[in-house]
Amino acid sequence: xxxxxxxxxxxxxxxxxxxxxxxxxxxxxxxxxxxxxxxxxxxxxxxxxxxxxxxxxxxxxxxxxxxxxxxxxxxxxxxxxxxxxxxxxxxxxxxxxxxxxxxxxxxxxxxxxxxxxxxxxxxxxxxxxxxxxxxxxxxxxxxxxxxxxxxxxxxxxxxxxxxxxxxxxxxxxxxxxxxxxxxxxxxxxxxxxxxxxxxxxxxxxxxxxxxxxxxxxxxxxxxxxxxxxxxxxxxxxxxxxxxxxxxxxxxxxxxxxxxxxxxxxxxxxxxxxxxxxxxxxxxxxxxxxxxxxxxxxxxxxxxxxxxxxxxxxxxxxxxxxxxxxx
Length: 326
Ligand SMILES: [Mn+2]
Description:
There is one protein chain. The protein is built from eleven helices and twelve strands. With 326 residues, it is of the alpha/beta class. It has a six-stranded parallel β-sheet with strand order 3-2-1-4-5-6, with helices on one face. Strands 7-8-9-10-12-11 form a six-stranded mixed β-sheet, sandwiched between helices. The longest helix has 16 residues. It is globular. The site of manganese (II) ion (MN) has 6 residues, from loops.
């Protein structure tokens, strides 16, 4: 499909925002800093414009992001009783299903808007603002503010900053561009306490998360001559501490610290599936692997969920990665 002209798409969205009155906003399953920060910033500007907003997340807000301004206004797993919205805006959902079961909402929405920076994003919206070169969805949302000539408040800046800083791994990943830093700089000018946010994001870890990290590190093994790092977390690795899946965030990144590792995979047993997360370096495109198994993501960070047990899932995924690395 031909990629739509972004300027045109921004114009269309601006029109939807100006004329619409009720908006449904949703992010992806297991929401992260970019999804939540982007949702909250858009919701805030819509409310400033006098619009009605329903914020939805299929899954709960991770503990480490509970400081986000107005995060409690997000309805967790609760779809609205009212079915008809002037527009439904999906953030960071490469397919509508990434947001949960939104079929009824999308069917009745006046317009469906897809704002995403995943290169696997399917153009399912009436408006598709898909910018794979953007570091984060928050960076795209900043551009929306700019194109609407809306000033960014301190709290909105804090939300967008969280999206950018988390998705770029603190301005570390290659997707960080001069433009990313420029946007971050503009956000900092609003005067929100970014150092406090960095503390909360990066210098704070719950005891449970530290213990689960320990289990993850214990399971670390190197395959393919040291180019593949594999970690696994079984249900028992959580259950024994009373920890939950959110405590596994960032565990995978430790696999990439081992010199020579090109790909890291984390297998985690979930209630009814096996959750698989991938990280890679340079040319190895893990989003393609994830897509093979019904998932998606970025070239160097992706994930999927499989209807399989640990043994079976591992076997299938590792076979594919071995083929790529050998
Ligand atoms: Mn993102």
